[in-house]
Amino acid sequence: MVHRAAVAEVLLTGWERRAEARFAVTAQWPRGHSFFTPVGGTHYDPLMVAETIRQVGSLLAHAEFDVPVGHQFLMHDLEIAVQPGQLVVEAVPASLDIEVTYPQVKQRRLQHAGARYEAVVRREGRVVARGSASYTCVSSQVYQRVRAGRLSLGRPAIRLTAPLSPQSVGRMSPTDVVLSPLGEADGWQLRVDTRHPILFDHPVDHIPGMMLLEAARQAATAVLNRSSLTRSSFLPTSLVSRFRRYAELDSPCTVQAHRLPADPGEHRVLVSGHQDGEPLFDVTVSACDLRG
Fold this sequence. Notes:
Thiol Ester Dehydrase, Chain A, mainly beta, single chain, twelve-stranded antiparallel beta sheet
């Protein structure tokens, strides 16, 4: 119900309805993860916060709003803001309580058609993060019509391109790098490896939104590392993302990034993606340097 094939990738552990549009969800973050590795070796990856928020929407859509399994979801936007001090990895996995509210629920022909939801994530009573997202969902039949002519499942993806240096984008393994050089200082090609066990947990006909968020994080890290005298550990403190359309597997996607004005001690980078000459996504990444 959270659109993950591997049980190990399910972060949610339970839920209950508290009111008509309010729910309590529980989750657990592992101390170590093969992809959402601790930032600087000390802090939970904020992208795991984003994945938790995404899973919340899928779970409640199926379990509480009666969306049939097999319906397709289109995420329009996803935002998170974290408290870095509450993300410290401790001696046991982090147990989380998530308060979820739905300021907007859409229906079509008496069926759930989408929603906007907001979440407050707490760890031992203290706020770890806040987030929100909106989505629409459609039946598989409608999805086939909407995606007619662009369904990529079974069609060859573009050739896998060479990765950037893992250290330049805050990664340890080249298999986790989702950007390839284009010969531009602040521009890259999205590196789409459909064999990746986390980003492509199961077969899909488009590039998952979580991969686009990871591309934004890596692009922001590359820009910030270039202007830093030493290699730093940049922890995203907020992500504000908008997804314009489906990201196709069989067409190159370019990613650009540039710095924005920011308060002292903070860094802000706007990352945008384009495909076939059309806007694909944009993410404003705010970050702090864990090394001061």
